[in-house]
Amino acid sequence: MVDRVSATRSELLVRRAQIGLAVQGRDLLKEKRTALMREFNRLSQNALAAMKDLEERARDARGALSETTALDGPEAVGSAALASGGEIGVGLKSKSVAGVKIVELEHDPVGRARTDRGYSLAATTPRIDGVAEGFEAVLDGLLDFVAVELSLRRLAEEITRTTRRVNALEHVVVPGLEGERDFIAMVLEERELENRVRLMRAKARANKETTERGPA
């Protein structure tokens, strides 16, 4: 590639400027990656805590469901489950972390009062209320976890993309420009040396001719 480089002082100045911009871009990308990794680590800790909490809620809810099904019968549990169906309002908002949109999920309260679940309180037992509360807690935790997981995926993708760009600048672009800069500088130095030698020879030849001619 250096064979095709025009070895002029203007090109040397251009390469120096390009190197400065490439290094500045690399440093900015490193700062961006640091900010992304900081947010990724923070959300990862939240995700681990949320996952552990969700597993505990799910285990308790499954236990309550098994006990209630055994004692009250699957028909009573199934009937209550059908009657208690409903909708939950969900909305998304986002914030920017180093240019990456981080999702935050907002939703209506999942937990409901006993009288708002749709099934007859007279025809059900408190155990069914316990099952409903348990799975409402599971759904509440699941909705919170989904937003964190989505944000983690976006951060991981952007961290990977940014790392590739940093590596390209650090190991390909900057070294290539530095190689061209050094090549141009070397050629210019050689030319300057050749010109200096040529001038010295011309001066020596002129002095010799003057000496041979003698005084006018």
TrEMBL record:
Protein family per UniProt: Belongs to the V-ATPase D subunit family.
Source organism of this protein record: Rubrobacter tropicus
GO biological process: proton motive force-driven plasma membrane ATP synthesis
Pfam families: ATP-synt_D (PF01813)
Coiled coil: 26-71
Database matches in InterPro entries: V_ATPase_D
Function description: Produces ATP from ADP in the presence of a proton gradient across the membrane.
Official protein name in the record: V-type ATP synthase subunit D
Keywords: ATP synthesis, Coiled coil, Hydrogen ion transport, Ion transport, Transport
GO molecular function per UniProt: ATP binding; proton-transporting ATP synthase activity, rotational mechanism; proton-transporting ATPase activity, rotational mechanism
Presence of the UniProt keyword Ion transport in the record: yes
Record has Ion transport as a keyword: yes
